[in-house]
Amino acid sequence: MTASEFTSRLDAQVAFLKEADRLKSILRATPLIDGSRKENSAEHSWHVMLYALVLADQAGPEVRIDRVIRMLLLHDIVEIDAGDHPIHGNVDHAAQEAAEAAAADRLFGLLPDDQRDGFRALWDEFEAAETPDAVFAKAIDRFQSPVTNLAGNGLGWRGYDVTLEKLDARVGRPISRGAPGLWAWLRPKLAAFLGQPG
Amino acid sequence: MTASEFTSRLDAQVAFLKEADRLKSILRATPLIDGSRKENSAEHSWHVMLYALVLADQAGPEVRIDRVIRMLLLHDIVEIDAGDHPIHGNVDHAAQEAAEAAAADRLFGLLPDDQRDGFRALWDEFEAAETPDAVFAKAIDRFQSPVTNLAGNGLGWRGYDVTLEKLDARVGRPISRGAPGLWAWLRPKLAAFLGQPG
């Protein structure tokens, strides 16, 4: 690589990293546990990576936890352009998928071509939720919010019509697919909190 | 493992993960690039992990980038008890080290013993900054703030007496030790911004 190619590569990498700063201003529906404010998608990404590392023993033997962590590092970057869509809100899924794909084109497109393609492949794998790594990453991503909401006395659920039936479908299904032990642990706590027979 | 041991282990892991939520309320001296507010240590941790992944080609061949990412995932958790200390502020380093060691005892001590010991070893390695992985992790951790401060027109440096000489010592030394290409790229930009001969 010539000095000029080296500089161009680094210029592109830093341009992407500076643009990524904006993920810190994308707010999610879930508040912090202390209720002081809403969580943003950058700190959420850090937290779910920590969940993945700590809860790695809940994954099947074929899961490579460092790949899971890389997926979770990248998984929400598209929200810089496409926004966050609360799991208990009503969303036009096709429009949302199109917006996220366009966001991935633009944002990963800031990087040098080799990294653009590698990051996009990892993000596509996460979104498809078919490989063991992606299935576990999705389970972890879904597990953090209900744990936070329980710890915060359900503050993050107010304004949404949250029932055990809905949690079973939107949260329980992806968690039990990738980390059945986590769902077995969580579901009775959700049932007790919501006052519904588990 | 019996069902009861399994549940105790998961209870301890989730207790740690909930406590970690508090890192989102630890504020750093550096503002977001858009100047809207100060950065917190959880979103900073996410951002430096992204820096490490994107800038992995700046590391020496012996650096294992997934270990670097794990170090950066954990590196600031002690600030929940010990607080953040701005690099350009004046700090009693011995008192700060003692506070951080006590914080590591308490916070990693929430985890099951095997994870407590593994996480502590990784954090100690980062702090010691002797292994190639730790030296690169420290370089990346130091690189993000000046990039952010330049992009934000120096907002994060106001109130501190920042000179090129101080940046050479506090930022340049750790960056050039772990990632000399990054310092060669950054230093002329810092000199130009500060209006000092580089």
TrEMBL record, chains A, B:
Zinc keyword on record: no
GO molecular function: hydrolase activity
Reactions listed under catalytic activity: a 2'-deoxyribonucleoside 5'-phosphate + H2O = a 2'-deoxyribonucleoside + phosphate
EC number per UniProt: 3.1.3.89
Keywords for this protein: Hydrolase, Metal-binding
Cofactor(s) required, per the database record: Co(2+); Mn(2+)
Protein name as catalogued: 5'-deoxynucleotidase
Subunit structure: Homodimer.
Domain HD/PDEase: 37-119
InterPro entries for this protein: HD/PDEase_dom (IPR003607), HD_domain (IPR006674), YfbR/HDDC2 (IPR039356)
